[in-house]
Each structure stands twice: as structure tokens, then as C-alpha cells.
Input
Amino acid sequence: MRVKMKVKHLVLSTVSVIVLLVLFISFLQPQLETWGISRQLASGETEQAKERIIENIESKSRNRLQLIEKYMISPAPGAHYDIYVSPSGIMGPGPEAAERYFTLEESAPYLLEYLEKGPAGDTHRKAADILSVYYYGEGDYENLSLSLQKAAARYDNNSEHYHELKLRNIEQAVNFQEFEAAEALIDQYEKEVPESYPDARLQTAMLKARSYMLQDKTEEALAVLDTAMEDYREHERQLLEEMREYDPDYTDEFQEDSYYLTVAEDLKTSIESMDDNAGGASIEGRITRSDGQPLANAGVFLKDEPNVMRTSPSPFDEKYGTVTGPDGSYSFHGVAPGSYQVQVGLLLEQVDGWSWPADMYEWVDLEADEAEQYDIELTPLINISGPKDYETLENETITFDWEDYPDAASYTIFLGIEVDGGAGSLSVGFMEEIPESQITFEADDLYAKAVGFSFGDEEWDSVQPESLLAFANVHGSYFWYVHAFDEDGEFIGQSNGYRLKEETMGALPFFQLQEREMTEADNLLMDGKAREALALYKENVAENEDDIHSLRMITRINGLDEKNAEETAEYQKRLYEVAPDEGNLFHIIEYYFSAGDWVETAKWFSRYQEEVPEGKQSSYVKALYGITLTRLGELEEARSLFYEVMEEDRSNEYIGNLLALELYLGTEWEKVQEMAWENKERFYETLDWTPLVEDLESVEEQSLMEALRLSFEGNEEELERFLADEDSALRNFISELKKR
Amino acid sequence: MNSRDEQRKAKQILVEELEQYNFTAAGKVTARTHPRSFREKLDRLWNKEINIPLVPVGAALFLFLSAGSMFVISETAPDGQRELIEKGGSIYWSDLLEREESDR
Output
């Protein structure tokens, strides 16, 4: 088959196809590039993709603003951080971190371009936020101010962004103590603020007041604040009157005080306290890595007790929030005295391969007119050597091996199991006070350890079988990590943390243990037939009373249902006879303690003392025994035991018990109060016993002694009757004591 | 009537009938049939009719297009969106961990 055509038609059609193709490519090519880049990123060629993005942006390609938006603005944390670390725990990060490939430093020049040329709006505004955080950390006021001005210029006077950016600009001038610049900016801005923006007017006045405050002009500062607050209230009154014209019954009774007004009140109080030369505390320090490298641009927040587990999105919106400078330093002045934890906001790139090992009970007590130094050091994650990378262990002994960590005097090893097919995990502190960077266990040591249980629903037999079998499950996947402590017992490093790059990932701490074989009952359990398995384990034990594995499994499965407590305890005791073990003893003591059998509790505790060496006894078990001693009337002994507990347990969970004993045994008021003040309870919630103790001073001594005696004896009914006619101070103290 | 007369007559009629027509494109026709200048040669080439064999050209075009679309299809394979996962007490990028797990 052939077609006939003239050469000119052939040429013309070819040319038009080519022209179309060229047009197509010039419009579609940037999209193709963008798409190619995301392909490259998805396949892990991050460096090449980053180069391609920069090339595209610098070649003024049509897609450059889009690329800046997609790879530099959207995934950037803005004025936020990926994770917030405090001694109490870690929070974050959000999903946007997954798309972040550029550091702030790398993006900064392009963001500046975006501020000028990018479309105004939320993304544009975010670019301004990112840059202001960056320049703040760099200590570069000029560029900071310049970028905020550039950004503001893109909005008109009616836009919220305009006012926020202008205010941010003034705020930064004040922060950098550029007072002349601040004054000029304030003068200029005051002329622009419309009458209908009372919040902005009040904010401007607050900034002005802060600027005066920093220049020690407290009178001027207070005058500015007073006038502005009065104006603000006047505006609210007018608003109320206007509303009443429409609706005579209108009331603002239920309306909360305006946010800015309360902030202004706070500021006023702190300026006044400065004026009296009393009140303001300060804290400062540096955040560095242990190799000396300072951590610039990290958020630092002071969290008081009620807010310790709250995230602080932006350092600029927090009462006590700031950003570290290029040398990693931060400072807070004029802080209300009290107890705080320092929370640090970090980006993933800052924390990758590092951690801040902090004791969860680490609080800073700030006192009026005193300056605290609080430095934070990030230490590298501990490298582990083995077992690793899912290796299968089949020997009777298992050796855990890790790097010799600088300054470490002892280590704690944690072991864990995966549950739910890897979706969840349970881990347990396996051994403390390990003197070397290596330890060998018998496989049976692992089998003896329970890790806690996870359930499918509320019924006990919905328990996930792998959590019951724990390390005895030959199909299980296990992991481990270590924590390092220095000579003073301070937590200084850990092997678990953020491992986000090939270089920081290290050996994978996973292994399998296939030393034993699964029994028939184990297989039943794994099939989800917990009841049948339990029956079979019991049968096994009936046949062979030395069947340690079956005994262990019975105590674990039986222990899930509180109704079986007594039977479980019997099996615990049988297990103890054939395989004495600390965990086992602990369960027996706990059982007798909760059953209120003080004599048996004491008996088993003495076994515990024999079995477990002095330094390794759990402070919780000791505290249980301390309470047992008070029940038995051995108060002096109980007191000295609680002192031991207090030494070891930094949460001060049992301070109340100790204070009660001290009061009963006739220790001076002042000393008891001092003890309460110095040892705030910080268990699940924080409790300062000081006011509770102080209030007791008004209570008649005889009543106090009687109430304490009844509470020591655990005589609930009598105590209830006795307290009914007593002072509320006494009732409060005793009821807090009863909760422990 | 002999044929010569007839011919003469026919010619006369033809001449009479064609008297009002005047052929002036003789030059152009000669240029086409016997191109002399470059322009004339180009013009001839431009209007030359060619025969295109449909089967081989069609096959080549088909191969070209299908190769192109194969490329496009392979490029649009679903993106593996990475996420942070907590495993063994540490936090990893899902894609990196998967890769390491299969490599080790």
C-alpha cells in the first residue's frame, strides 16, 4: 500500500509537527522537570534532585516559583519545629517533614526572591516567617528587617498579614535592642493603624513598653502601657454601648477577657516587679553538640508545670520562647519565679544521629533576682555492634555488644518485642548498672522476662499472644537499645533515636531468637486460643512440676484476669521455688501488699532483700515495704526506708508518706516544710506538699496525731468517721496521703 | 469529398472557434518541463509527487510512538511517599529502612 503526495505537503506537515512539538515542550517542559524531580526524589536520588531544583530555579525557569513553593516553603517548618524535646518527652514531627530536602541556610536566598516575586498570600507569608526565624538565628538584624519590610510591602493596609508583618518587624527591632530603629518603626506604624484595629494598637504599645523596659525606663514603659490599656478598655466599652443600642439586653458578662489585654497585664506585672527590683528571674545557656558545634536556630521554651507536655508551635507566640543564636546561646529575663522544664524545638536535620539525654525529673527552679545557667548538650547516638540486622540466634547464650561510649560508667540495656506484625512494640528495661559495653545473657534470662501485654479488646483472652510469650516466641522479632550513664549516674547517651540517613542509621538492632522449640500449648496460644493453651499449660505442670516455661505462661495468662489473683500468686510461688527470679518475687510481694496481708508482705520482702543485691533493689518495692512497716507500727524503720526511696526515686512519689511520718515522729515544723518545698512530687501529676503541710499548723496537735495514726494503721472506716468533724486542712492532707 | 478537404475544413472551424483564445503560458510550461534556473528546479522538486510505502513508514511511526509512551508510562510509576516510622526504639525514614532491610 502506498500513498501519493507532493514533497511540499510532506515538508509542510513535518514542519508543523516539529513546531507543535517545540511549543508543547516549552510549555510542558517545566512541568516535566518538576515531575522528573519528584521521581528522582522518590527513588532516593536526593542529591541529584536537589541540584536539579537549584538549576531550575537559577535558570529562571518558568517553574521556579513553583519549585521554591513546593520544596522550600511548604515542607519548611516555618516558625515551627519538627520535634519538641523536653526532659518529659519528645513530641512531633508532622508529615510535612517527609518532603523536606533543603536546610534553612540553603533555601534562604531563594525565599528572598520569592518574597519579591511570589504571589501574595499564605504561602508568601510563610516564606517571610521562615526567613525571619532564619535571620534571627543568624543574628542578622538587617536582613531580617529587610525581608519583613519586603514582605509587608506586598500587602495593603487592610490585610491581616500586613499588620502582623509590621508588628513582627518592630518586635525584632526591640529584640535586637535596635531602639532607634524600633522607635522609628513604631512612629511610622502608629500613623497607619486604623482606629478599628484596637489589638494592633495595644500590641504596638506593648512593644514600645518592652523597648523602654529594656532601656531601664520603667516609668515611661508603665505610662505607655496604662494609656494603651485604658484606650483599649474604652474601645470595648464603646463597642458594648453600640451593641446595646441594637439589643438593650446585650451583655458581655460571659465574654472572656481579650487575649491581648491579659498579655498586657502580664507585661505590666513583670515591668512593675522589675521596678521594685524584685521578682524577675533569668535563665540562660547554650545548646551545643558534644563535639562543640553550637546549635543555631533551635527553639527554646520555658514550660511551667501545667504546660510541660504542650507543644509550642512558634517561639514568637510563646510567653517564654526564643531561638538560639549562631553560637547556640539563648536567654530569658524577667521570668516569673517557679519551676520550669526547658523544652527545645529542633529540626530533623539537627537531631539526626543525636539525642538530648535528659532525666524526666529534671526541673529548673528559678528564684527571684537569680540567674540560672542551663546548658544543653546533644550527644551522638551509641553505635551497636550486635546482635543486629535480623540475625537469628540459636545458642544458649546471647552477647550484646556496643561501642565504648565516652565518659560512660554504666549502661542500661532495654529489650523489646514487636507486636501486631511490626505495627507496635513493647520494650522493657532488662538490666541496669552494666559496667562494660558488652553483656552476655542466658537465653532463659530472656524467656523469664515479661514485657507487658497488649490487647485487642477489653476481654482478657483478646491478648496478643506474642506479647505473652515475649522472648520465648521463636517466630518473634526482637530489638534492643542501650542507655549510658556517667559516674554520677547522669544519663549521657542512648543508642535509640533519630536515624534518618544512611550514615546515621548504623546497624539495625533487630534479631530473632530460635534457641528453644515451641510447645503444643505455645502453638495453641499463637493461634489465639488462649483458654485452651492455659488449660494445656496447667496440664503440663500437673505432669511435671518443674516445667518452668509452662509455670511462667500460667502466671502470665492467669494474671491477666484479676479474679484469678490468688491462684496466680500460688503459681508465682511454685515458679519461685523452681526458678527464683526478681520479677517473680516482685509479683508475689505486690500480691500480698494489695491483699493487705502485711505479715506475708514483710516475709517475702526479706526474701527479696536476700535475693536482690543492695544497689539493685527497686525503689517501688522498697516503698511498698515502707508502707507495710507503717501498717505494722514500725514507724522509725519505715521512715529510714522512705529516706532511701527518696534518694533513688527522683519523682518523689512517696514524699507525702515521709512527711506524714516526720510529723508524727515529732520533727520540727520548719524542717518538715523545708522538706516538702525541696521535694515536690512529680509523678503523674505535680504536687507541691508545702501548702498542705503549712495549713496543718492550725490543726490541733492531738487531732493531727490521731488522724495520722489511723492512716498509718490503714483503718479506713475509723479514719473516715474521725475526719468528718475535723478541720478541712487535715482532711485535705490525709486524702492526698490516701491516694498514694 | 476527399480527406484533405475535410481536414482543411475541420482546421478552419477549429481556427475560427479558437480565434478568441490565446495561449500565453508557453514559457511557464517549458520552465516546468525543462527547468533551467535554480528557482525553476526548486519549484519542480517542491511539486514533485512521491510515493510513500505505507507499511514500512507506518511500522516505523508505530515503533517510535510506542517507545515514547513506554518511557512515559515507566516514568509515571507510583511515587513511594516516605514517612517516619518508629521501629526498635529508633525513628527511621520508611524507604531507607526498607532498602537497608532488604540489603542486609
Notes: Chain B touches chain A through 33 residues (CB under 8 Å). The helical segments of chain B are 3-18, 26-33, 38-46, 54-75, 94-103. The radius of gyration of chain B is 39 Å.
